Amino acid sequence: MPAADAAYGIHIDTNTPQGLRAKQTMDMVNSEWPIGTVGVRTMAVPQQVNPITAAMGNLWWDRPVSVSGLDIGAGIATLHVLTPYGAAQDIELRTNDAGLVDRFAVTLQPPVIKKWADIDTVLTKSGARYSYQVSKVTDGKCSTVAGINTEPPTAVTVSSAAFRSLTANVHSGPLVGASSSARRPCTTPIAGPALDVRKNPG
Fold first, then answer.
1. Residue 155, Cβ neighbours under 10 Å: how many?
2. What architecture (CATH level 2) is domain 3-109?
3. Residue ranges of domains in the chain
4. pLDDT attached to residue 167
5. How far is Cα 120 from Cα 148, in angstroms, rounded to an integer?
């Protein structure tokens, strides 16, 4: 496999306009040069230059981005990509008769979460440092549902809102808080910024 293909994960054929633009997209988002309108004008129709620049700029911040799959259709290419922290995204682009991109859409693919252990698996893959504890109240009694890294000094209180998308398919009773203290699971107020697995405080 050529070095460039190895860096992206798969070979991207450039013998079609959509394949060429898919390869160009990966070249640009993995470049050390920030995404700008000058470069995007070489691949996109004028009215799409600004929105595509913004979308590619967001991808550029997460570089290196690798390709796990590629679907080529009539005038359409869909790149299935992964960020270094394991987030899966689809990049769908469409080319016109002149071979320029007239549609560009990036869609985040949510992880499959069916149980609490799946949350730990996903967050561990991200490489981020994290801590959470989730509690519920049943018949007036508070109990811990799930959590990890809850003991001081490594625990950090985070907002339960950070887990809403991850815990949508986990049914363990009403969630009342995310706490940094295992000894007071239902009395610690929900506070602090939402957890962002893209950030690693070191």
1. 19
2. Roll (3.10)
3. 3-109, 116-178
4. 59
5. 8
